[in-house]
Queue: 2 jobs
Job 1
Amino acid sequence: MTMVFGIPIQAFLGQLLVGLINGSFYAMLSLGLAIIFGLLRIINFAHGAQYMLGAFVGYLFLSVTGLGFWPSLILAPLVVGLLGALVERVALRRLYDLDPLYGLLFTFGLALVIEGTFRYYYGASGQPYAPPAALAGGTNLGFMFLPNYRGFIVAASLIVCIATWALIEKTRLGATLRAATENPSLVRAFGINVPFLLTLTYGIGSGLAGLAGILAAPVYQVSPLMGSNIIIVVFAVVVIGGMGSIGGAIATGYLLGLCEGLTKVFYPEASNIVVFVIMAIVLLIRPAGLFGRTA
């Protein structure tokens, strides 16, 4: 049997796969957080609740309306994004000129309301959510057995993250979004609807959280606690990558997922804290984060 560092290669690669899957969710969630903070300067503590909401919207589509997995995968992020846009228009836009603490407190309270509502109706236990029949089973790669749905998660996450990065960094729309947040008066002078762009930005960030949630549902089950269980780690990922750095959020999400997987191989007891240890070290050496801009 082939060994890696004294460990069977199947076990080693299996843990790396688990880390890569976790990293895929970290990357999508931290990407949404980075977009919202980088463009709106809002610390969106409701992001974990929006992740959970995406899973529950998909679950309700599947169980109540009978929609299949694929239509739910498209509709759930749209619903969460529209709800996020509504929150921005009704409440968040009133807080832009205030201390960022107000935005954090509002989104934290919103997260508690959303989580509490779903806990009231569904309890704390998870609801099963089956993957699509087309992705059932797995593929024998020779050195390991790859579950098809988990491979799909990694591929889908990469496509979404790269496409979103390209949209924000490489297109005219992305340039307009950045300009609207940095100098709204100048952008208004060109006849551009700045409030709509801010709403669109928060909606995109919320939709990314919803997409991550419905993708995670078949892996972790649908639970009101799934957002609160992951959001602290995701905030640590964003801090390590650099607050507001979109590329940094993506790269750091995958890297830290792999670090978690490797830690489970060599020192499982530390796997739950390794991200926070790395965060402390990075902040001591580079307070702006690995990819953040220094003042």
Note: The chain is about 70% helix and 5% strand.
Job 2
Amino acid sequence: MSDRHCSFLVPGDIYTRTGGYTYDRHIIDGLRAAGWQVDLAALGDSYPEPDAAAIARTRELIESLPDGTLVVVDGLAFGAMDRIAAAHERRLRWVALVHHPLALETGLSADLRQRLFESERRALAAARHVIVTSRSTARALADFDVSATRVTVIEPGTARSALAAGSGAPAPSLLCVATITPRKGHALMVEALAALRDRPWTLHCAGSLSMDPACATGLRAAIRRHGLEDRIVLHGERDEARLEALYAAADVFVLPSFHEGYGMALAVALAHGLPVVSTLAGAIPDTVPSTAGLLVPPGDVEALRDALRQVLDDAGLRSRLAAGAREARGQLPTWDDSAAAFARALEQVAGQPFDATKAP
């Protein structure tokens, strides 16, 4: 089997507009452009809590792979397929791609959180190598008994973008790009902005409203309850062109996440030279320098409100943070950089002797 061949397994539809799937798409495109044969397969959209059909499909697909196959699996699925991973760890070269540990998702019951933690810990034990998208996630994997020698950090790339022109309006335009799920903190953002209704602003939210319908319903209810229907626009999922238009017309980017494995939308905001208001959760401080954004403790509505008040009231502060963002964007990796690093990591795994035992 060629050393430049791999199977790449993802849960659900790879064209879903989330940061994780965007990363997967760019990496696969980059590998193929570099001459790799990448066999893409979908495992079902019920992960990370797979139903019987998804498990059966995954098992059938894995059993069909020849011995020694290099298999990259998106962590949204890999962390929940511990039994399958263990059953084939001596036969296949598993590479886990972890965007962020499953147990760090917001809104999980204590029981589900523990089950996901144990499942992902067992699955990662079967991996010959683990690729993560941030230094923060690399550090988090120590709790899963993954040694640093088995981990490679490959941050997402960022397209070279034109600097945002801004809204040009007296009321600053705030932008949040994130799927509507509890982890992204939309409800907290509405709560913070409700007390700032005496100031001129508009908030544009771009992101799927269907991935977590209950969360989206609750968000709409919160907007109505605070009487902010004319101040907050829920655009839903947007294609690249319309998303680019929202970035271009924004004055401030806001993302009050409870956790981020990297925060691709934040990097895109920096690439557009936008000042940022976000949190200290996960990899965000590694992605957004203090010169480009105001970062507050996750879940702290008062701190978030104060940060928003500062950027709304102080045009000079917005300008200084925008300058910091413009400086930071020059340090962001490109997708070519990320794909090349990914290829090097796979080449190292593919080059390991294959003798039906897991590499150390």
Note: The chain has 14 helices and twelve strands.
